[in-house]
Amino acid sequence: MKEFELIKRFFTEQVIKRKDVLLGIGDDCALVSPSDRQNIAITTDTLVAGVHFPHETSARAIGHKSIAVNLSDLAAMGAEPTWVSLAITMPEVDLQWIEEFCTGVFELCEFYNVQLIGGDTTQGPLSITITAQGLTPFDKHITRSGAKPGDWIYVTGEIGDAALALKDIFNTVKVTPEYREKIRHSLDFPTPRILAGQALREYASAAIDLSDGLMSDLGHLCTASKVGANIVLEDLPISNALRDSVSIEEAFDIALVGGDDYELLFTVSEDNKVGMETALANSGNIITCIGQLNGSDKISTTLNSKPVAINAKSFEHFSQSKD
Q1: What's the pLDDT tens digit per position in 64-114?
Q2: Whole-number average pLDDT of the chain
Q3: 184 with 289, same domain?
Q4: Count of CB atoms within 10 A of residue 137's CB?
Q5: What proportion of the chain, given as a percentage, has pLDDT over 70?
Q6: Is the residue at 323 inside a domain?
Q7: Is residue 316 part of a domain?
Q8: What domain range is 273 assigned to?
Q9: Which residues on neighbouring strands pair with residue 248, listed in sequence order?
């Protein structure tokens, strides 16, 4: 099957037909028409086989995750997801694989009312690039740079299970069968916290999604906001799967630097704390306060009020490259 036949069969027909899409797949460009007094948030992420997902990952999971990680970026800014473009490079045309991949893509798109409006298909090693766009009210969005000393640090959901799943896949940690399905689902089918992000527009001083590890992503937020932070290790929301599979010290390391969580990390002032907690509870999101910002330029961790050093490092592309 050639490129344009593939596009017509698998990507042109879809359930979602948004009214703000004037022209979608099939022309040189897509045309969209947002309402007045809205900002357009735009993000792009690439997923490469063997780097962002194990080679044996199912096609449906790859499709889901490709969309989810981009919607997670929109969630961190409080945006409503609207449109995505997809560029996929594949070594060959495997019709069953593509059909399963599209199932993963369109399941999430339909759930969040997101329309696929364009992209590209090429031949080569497997990789997927998504550009996702979303809308925020003109004067309401969240950035990384608004946090202040004294603000409280929160995360949604649980952290560390996706990284634990990778350790189990590569046999560096032995996970019991009762936990394996749960943690593998966390790795393969992350949930973008869209409703939480939109609720946080009214309360959060800053936010970021957790992709490369809590310490790394918190570091980005602290740098942008020119603040420091202290994380209280005993308050980290780690699952029973993580607690029961490794020592508590290793569990802390995995939760802090493991990555692939796609939860939201956000900061809230003391004045907005109660209102935020009520709003997030009403939206069905579980949140945990894990520390507080300060006026230093460092991130510290404490356990039972005593300083603890974290030695593990978060993932970073090109960290092994030679200059």
Answers
A1: 999 999 999 999 999 999 999 999 999 998 899 999 999 999 999 999 999
A2: 91
A3: yes
A4: 15
A5: 92
A6: no
A7: no
A8: 152-307
A9: none
Q: What is the pLDDT of residues 4-34, one digit of tens each?
A: 666 666 667 677 788 888 887 777 788 988 8
Residues 162 and 277 in one domain: yes
pLDDT of residue 59: 96
Category of 249 on φ-ψ map: left (φ > 0), alpha (ψ -120 to 50) or beta: alpha
Contact status, residue 209 vs residue 198, Cβ threshold 8 Å: no
Q: Are 85 and 44 in contact (CB under 8 A)?
A: no
Question: What's the structural domain count of the chain?
Answer: 2
Q: Do residues 260 and 187 touch, judged by C-beta distance below 8 A? A: yes
Sequence letter at residue 46: T
Q: Which of 107, 137, 167 is the last residue of a domain?
A: 137
Residue labelled with tokens 């509870």: 281
Order of all β-strands in the sheet with 299-303 = 204-209, 264-268, 152-156, 287-294, 228-232, 299-303, 306-307
Query: Residue 155 belongs to what H/E stretch?
Result: strand 152-156
For residues 193 and 110, state if they share a domain.
no
Which residues are within 8 A (CB) of 37 and not within 5 positions of it... i.e. 6 or more apart?
A: 137, 138
Helices (H), the chain: 3-7, 59-76, 95-111, 161-169, 177-188, 194-200, 214-225, 240-245, 248-257, 273-282
In this predicted structure, the answer to whether residue 317 has a pLDDT above a threshold of 50 is no
298-308, pLDDT tens digit by residue? 999 999 999 99
The single residue listed with the structure tokens 């497997």 is 126
> What CATH number did the domain enclosing 52 receive?
3.30.1330.10
Same domain, 226 and 269: yes
Q: 48: which DSSP letter?
A: E
Answer yes or no: is 217 within a domain: yes
pLDDT value at position 318? Answer: 39
Residue at which a domain ends, from 91, 112, 137: 137
**How distant is the alpha carbon of residue 220 from its chain centre?**
15
For residue 303, count CB atoms less than 10 angstroms from its CB and return exposed for 0-12, middle for 13-18, buried for 19 or more: middle
